[in-house]
Amino acid sequence: MPQEPGQASPHAGGSPRDTPHTTFFGPKTLAVVAFVAGVLVALLLAGSGIFVPAGTAAASPGISPTACGEKIVQYINANQITPGNTASLVGVRENHGVYSVDITYSSENVTVYASGDCGLLFTDAINMSAPLPGSSGSASPAAASKSARPEVDLYVMSFCPYGTQAETAMKPVADLLGSDADFHVRYISSVTGSTPASVQSLHGPAEVQEDLRQVCINQQYPAQYWVYLERFDEQCYPLAGNSAALSACRQNLTTSLGMDDGAITSCAAGNASVGTLASDEAAADAAGAQGSPTLVINGVTYNGARTPEAYKEAICNSFTAPPAACNTTLASDTAPAAGGCR
Known about the structure:
By secondary structure, this protein is of the alpha+beta class. It has 9 helices and 10 strands.
């Protein structure tokens, strides 16, 4: 889905998280396949796995992440996609001296990579120090940690498509077990001060604003928080690429739920909500939650299917004495692709 264009990553200005980056895609539309295929053809023609934008001099060392991202999107729009279509910049991150550039094309998310001088463009990157999923050397799933009242922490970015899918899957579980376990949605961002301007998130300022609004809604209207998330993800998130439509959708949604939108907006502009994001950042660092979504139950990271029933089973297995509600069967439809935003 379209994302609000952003300029900074959650860790801009600091040390990048030393973790493998997952290139994320939504449904495999023909348009996106054609786009990626076009970039791959350029790579093959270059014969070396990389290509230098034709007619473009290498950028000077120290080019800013935003300038590099804009340069890449300009090049892609001019050379790699069919007329009438447009790629848009979402955000840029620096890791190991390489820029990870997140863009949207045909309502889908695509990540490409550039050298530090922004002179070379790549379609994929592999962290060779990271264990391969499912490899014989990877650790076995951690055993559940049991408690009388499990702590359930779902780490997300509010504009990450995989995060919104996880929220949708978790809502019926929270509805079922909310009186028996403590559910927390925590937001992945980087906070360097006490004001909203000091917060950075992968999908830009619009995502920061929504994170802060959701924090305030949870504080002011806790009984309606999951309802808001469900409806925002269904009705407003698809409008993320249109700031005016997104703003109107937010206001209409809060009004329809009987919430004071002015109070929410005022709260989101305050220091207290920023403090909550800072606490979430500290919790994410402690839990090793670096991608959206990450589910942690009683301090143990969950790596199973993302369906209501699978989530319920994992949480119920974390009770010392499971409540009767655990006997309820929830939906177990095919889970969405196991991707994430980092």
